[in-house]
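Hey L., structure's done. Input below.
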Amino acid sequence: MALKFFGLMDLLAWISLVLFQFGLYKDMLLFFALYLLIKGFLFFPDIVSLLDGVTGFFFLLAFLGVFNIVTWLMFIFLMQKSFFSLFL
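Output:
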């Protein structure tokens, strides 16, 4: 049950980045960036949780206007992680 919840939250997180690119729901991206940072620190010893924290950091940078290729790589990581959590 918790895996599906986290998968859904990850799905909403990467959707928020796409919506942010169109100038919509800017606060939503900030919320999910902080969510990913907190989730990364709560489950720290796990490598996937560490990547969640890094993804949250790059989403926070995107909120501040700094987009680069690493942001989109983190987007793809979060997208595939959410699909695996929800559908497998």
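Residues 2-87 form one domain. The chain has a mean pLDDT of 91.

-- N.
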